[in-house]
Amino acid sequence: MSGYKLFYFPGRVGGEKCRLAFAAAKIDYEDNRLADEEWAKEKASGRSPFGQMPFIVTPEGKTLGQSVTVMKYICKIGGLCPANRFDEATADMITDQVGDLTLPLINIYNEKDETKKEQIRKEFYGTTLPARLEKFEALLKNRDEGKGFFLGEKLSYADITFFDFFNNFHSKGKEDVPGELEKFPLLVEHYKRVLNVPEINEWVKKRPVTEF
């Protein structure tokens, strides 16, 4: 064991990008999946930096929270960070944009009024998401005509973030290519390319099956 410990709830949701990063970076870790009562005790200990999960504890006993920050940290120590500053900024841009796409999903899930829920859903899937996917596909095509990853031949945290968004929230953790990508052939191939990274594929196949 490397000595890293990840703390999150039993499901995928916000912690899965961290697990995917650990897998892709070939870093062993302790995957602590806390039920509500266990989390209440852990939270009371004050160890989580902001009283939230996911967070990690390093081999030195240091703690780090926030899912994207944790994922990027894992990728940096695992050699999955772009080599130059502009490419790193581009990876951050992609990661931030995926984060922006997550917010409407949260709004859809939390909306109690069924009429408003359907309006938000229609706007997101009919207008917002397709428009953003056009931009993502253009970014991908700018590198090697879309034959590799977002930043070239090497996997980075930008690819992990994009894959996780669709695999986690749209394919429900299964290997299927989500229907939302069907009109974007380069993104379909990108999804498959990330899924076929041996360490990621192994993790997706063996991870616990959960609803969320």
From TrEMBL:
Annotated GST C-terminal domain residues: 84-212
Residue ranges annotated for the GST N-terminal domain, each copy included: 2-82
Lineage summary: Eukaryota, Metazoa, Cnidaria, Anthozoa, Hexacorallia
Name under which the protein is recorded: Glutathione S-transferase
InterPro entries: Glutathione-S-Trfase_C-like (IPR010987), Glutathione-S-Trfase_C_sf (IPR036282), Glutathione_S-Trfase (IPR040079), Glutathione_S-Trfase_N (IPR004045), GST_C (IPR004046), GST_superfamily (IPR050213), Thioredoxin-like_sf (IPR036249)
PANTHER family xrefs: GLUTATHIONE S-TRANSFERASE
Superkingdom field: Eukaryota
Extent of the signal sequence: none
